[in-house]
Specification:
Largest sheet: none
Structural class: mainly alpha
Shape: elongated
Number of strands: 0
Oligomer: single chain
Helix content: over 70%
Strand content: under 5%
Order of helices and strands: HHH
Length: 89
Amino acid sequence: MIQMMYGAISMASLTIALFFLRFWRNTGDRFFLYFALSFFIEGLHRVYSAVLNEAGEDSPLHYLIRVLAYGMIVWAIVEKNLPRKDRDD
């Protein structure tokens, strides 16, 4: 059952990454690129966990990968909300 859940989560994450890549290609906004990379990393992490049959996720590697993925989301949000230099106020 755990393998099936890893497969479903990885498929969903990789599908979401493809949607964000399409949005990035249409708009050119790096916000969508960071989200796509984050979901791609999360999807690959789930595939990696399923292949190694690791039900326990208590190793530091799992936490570091998630910190990287979630950090990219946080950075995308922060960067999107930073004031732009090319605006005329």
